[in-house]
Records
---
Amino acid sequence: MTLKQYNIEELILLCQQKNQKAQCEIYNRYAKAMYNVSFRIVKDAHYAEDVMQEGFLKAFNKINDFKQEVAFGAWLKRIIVNCSIDFYKKNNQYKTEDFESTLYKIEEITADVAENESFNELKIKQVLEIINSLKYNYRMVLTLFYIEGYDSEEISEILNISYANSRTTLSRAKESLRKKIKEL
């Protein structure tokens, strides 16, 4: 029987015994989804891949801490989200972007999108661009809420803020998003 036929619980048990083939199988099953999670936060393909791999290493090192209170994918996703947020905070703390290059990127994207994509896809891209233009904490809570599917309580745990602060930030972020969408 190959490892592809094993269910996730069996693979986790093998990983707890440091079975590298089982780790590889888990990686293969979850890599694409975890890369997407990381990319939505890190915003760079190469860094997202690095962060994802670091997250998998952390997960495999802490696999004995997995108590099966939640699904393995959710547990792994939480690790990837935390690694991505840590990376983003560490590497974008003092980063400034040149106004001219930003303007050029926006003009280029607008031209490409208008020529190649349907109206609905255009709206989705515009909303994502608006989300990306919001300040960091608004962008982060909206990404975690709308794209990753976390609720306010989970967001407060991930970002290490109070539940009330999480709800307030989410509410303000939604309002900011609404205002910018109305400007379209």
Note: Residues 20-42 form the longest helix (23 residues).
---
Amino acid sequence: MNKTAVSRLTKVRHRNELNSTLSSLPMSAKKVLFLVLSKINTKNEFDDNHIFYLTANEYVKWVNVNIDTAYCSLKEGAIILDNVLLKLKHEEIIELSDELQLLFTSKNAPDYINLSLTEFSAYYKNEGKIGIKFTKSAKQYLCKLVGSEKKYTTQILLSVVKLSSVNASSIYQLIRKK
């Protein structure tokens, strides 16, 4: 299920377990990811086959860059996101095993596990847009968050995409988590 409108007050939410992965992303990938996340209604679950699209014009509107920069940033961000792994620690694996259907218990859980963020991304050169399809395991971190005992981080979209450095973005993310 998508949000119908994105405004200056739009918030982006994700489970806290994603914070370490997101803080390590380069800004190009982080901006693309958060703009795509802004299209997710975190109260509901989206279809497993749903592809989220982001256009160069949307990127220009939010990030305030020229259209050529937007095209390059979309393409670069999507390529990076295809290689992003969600890193779960031992405790997180045990806690989330049932929910993510990982089939681990406290006795057989590994020290860490890496899960892919996206199944794929697609770049449509002639249309000036990208499409991103999240994996089923990543989906658990992006939707059905409200009411989950505040195990999620909320960030204001406009603030996130206006930041220019990874460090500033990571500090903002940490402040918003707390």
Note: The mean pLDDT is 84.
---
Amino acid sequence: MVAVDDATAAELLGRPVSSQDETMRRLAASLSRSLAAEGIAEDLIDMLEDVLRDRPDAAAAVRYRTDDLLVRLGLPLPRRPRPPKRAPSLSDEEAARISTMFGRATTQLVQIVPHRVAEYPTEELRLLVALRDERPAPGETLAHLRRYGLAILDLLDLMGDDA
């Protein structure tokens, strides 16, 4: 940031403003580049991938010693009852950290998206703000964060590849 004295500021403000199309296009392009430069943080992309990926269930990784022996002998594995699927766990601290990061991204997207798309995405932004303000029940935290992450991805898709 640069400090400007009163005389320089008065001179700059006294310059004529152009209404030519070329000047307006250059200004719009500069604004667009400026908004794109703010961009989406790389750690947000990593966080989205982390929230949206399937988390392995610890019960699914159970192996029995006899399984290897049966496979070597060419015999079929016995059918064992599968344990009921549980939702993958997410610690409270991790959920709070992800929620805070998504909240910051929401604030940034609400400011940037209208300048980056041809048609104002009313429904997408409404959903994003509603998800930011929602407080899920303790057992629904991961599902909420996944919905929130998908809403962020929808807006990033609308912005295109240069976002």
Note: The chain has a mean pLDDT of 77.
